[in-house]
Design brief:
It contains 20 helices and eight strands. It is α/β, with parallel strands linked by helices. It has three domains: 83 residues, SRP54, nucleotide-binding domain (Four Helix Bundle (Hemerythrin (Met), subunit A)); 196 residues, Rossmann fold, CATH 3.40.50; 128 residues, Signal recognition particle, SRP54 subunit, M-domain (434 Repressor (Amino-terminal Domain), Orthogonal Bundle). Strands 3-2-4-1-5-6-7-8 form an eight-stranded mixed sheet, with helices on both faces. The C terminus is likely disordered.
């Protein structure tokens, strides 16, 4: 989402290269470029001005450190101010009561129903027993969409198809949750294509009747400054407890994320991207600031790996590598575990210095499919002993996978090179670190 902003800020810092120390004159051009970058990213003008004014004040009073360049020193100042702008610290959900009721609000198309499904899966993974409630009685197939998502996440689902009163549906759902010992109730509500009186009255009535511990406003990050204006209108009526930014994998400029905390003074609690039910992250201001400044987000990358990678399998594969017995079966398993971690471009963007270099690259998440098809067309014996692959076997694999002989030969060559590299590392080190 922040690719363009990241590039422009990096360009702004280049004006300080070669300077001996931070001064008012050499910082001025950089600050102007940063402000322009923020405005271009659809950040609220007052927020952008306040942000850059604060940077100037901090830069004036910055103690000059001999071992640090002006660019590095200003990057630290900008990073600290970005963290503050994005909320300062991570804001967790407060789930008191039994059941704890979470009310989901937002405009139609913002991703409320998908987020409800994702949140239920997230809470289930935290050891909770959630129930999702379909209270959107207007949008065609809204109830069915949530029911399908509840099946995917294996979470309890409640609605009343013959009842069009959202308040009654939600109240009955809470009674059902108490009887069946569900300790979290997530209420998905109706949206509209624009803010209107009926919509606001309905969501206000729901909040009054349910007294939720959390009221989350879901906003489409791709709507930019409009998202901030909508958030303010909802907050005036609901006084919500937190914001959820959706569609962060889209072509959004980032203005909503950078403006919303300052305008409504409510924390961003979650960031959502894509349609997969596990594509939901707790929003960490410090990590997001690091990504904007091209410093990556290795902590989140490691957390994704810990959640998605089978550690027993990883240990088994590491031992096979140590014995030079890594084969195509192992390789296929590793590919499938990497795919679980999410969008490949997003994952690479978490590596320091990589984000800006790949922003214009079209990284196909289906790139592994051809490799998987080839390996899956091999017999178990061929996967463990690639040297068995003669011309007739190769022709059979090509026919079965729908790939070309050139692709198969390229994969075999790359796999052989990888095995040779592993062997050299084992010979050099004598063991695999950590085992």
């Amino acid at each position: 989402m922040f690719d363009t902003l990241q590039g422009r800020i990096e360009k702004a810092f280049k004006t300080l290269k070669g300077q001996g120390r931070i001064t008012e004159s050499n910082v001025a051009d950089t600050i102007i470029e940063i402000r322009r970058a923020l405005i271009a990213a659809d950040v609220n003008f007052k927020v952008a001005k306040s942000f850059t004014d604060e940077i100037i004040e901090k830069a004036k009073g910055a103690e000059v450190i001999k071992s640090v360049s002006p660019g590095q020193q200003l990057t630290k100042i900008v990073n600290d101010e970005l963290v503050k702008l994005l909320g300062g610290s991570t804001s967790e959900l407060h789930l008191k009561g039994s059941p704890a009721v979470i009310l989901i609000a937002g405009l139609q198309g913002s991703g409320k129903t998908t987020f409800t499904g994702k949140l239920s899966k997230y809470l289930k993974a935290q050891g909770r027993t959630p129930m999702v409630v379909a209270c959107d009685v207007y949008r065609p197939a809204a109830r069915e969409q949530l029911r399908v998502l509840s099946e995917q996440t294996e979470v309890a689902y409640y609605t009343e198809n013959d009842n069009n009163n959202p308040v009654k549906i939600a109240e009955n759902a809470i009674r059902e949750a108490k009887i069946k010992n569900y300790n979290v109730v997530i209420v998905d509500t109706a949206g509209r294509i624009a803010i209107d009186t009926d919509m606001m009255n309905e969501i206000a009535a729901l909040k009054k009747a349910l007294n939720p511990v959390e009221t989350l406003f879901v906003v489409d990050a791709m709507t930019g400054q409009d998202a901030v204006n909508t958030a303010k209108a909802f907050n005036d009526v609901l006084d919500f407890t937190g914001v959820v930014l959706t569609k962060l994998d889209g072509d959004a400029r980032g203005g909503a994320a950078l403006s919303i905390k300052s305008i409504v003074n409510k924390p961003i609690k979650f960031a959502s991207s894509g349609e997969k039910m596990d594509a939901l992250d707790v929003f960490h201001p410090d990590r997001m600031a690091g990504r904007i400044l091209g410093m990556g987000d290795v902590v989140s990358l490691v957390e994704k790996a810990q959640l998605n990678i089978d550690h027993e399998e990883a240990e088994r594969v590491a031992k096979k590598i140590a014995k030079n017995k890594f084969d195509f079966e192992d390789f296929l398993g590793q590919l499938q575990q990497i795919k679980k971690m999410g969008n490949m471009k997003d994952l690479l963007g978490m590596l320091p210095g990589v984000g800006s270099k790949i922003k214009d690259l079209d990284i196909d998440d289906n790139a592994f499919k051809g490799v998987e098809a080839i390996i899956q067309s091999m017999t178990p014996e061929e996967r463990s002993k690639p040297e068995l692959l003669n011309n007739s076997r190769k022709q059979r694999i090509v026919r079965g996978s729908g790939r070309s002989i050139q692709e198969l030969n390229k994969l075999l060559q790359q796999f052989q090179q990888m095995r040779q590299m592993m062997k050299m590392m084992n010979n050099k080190r004598g063991r695999i670190p950590g085992f």
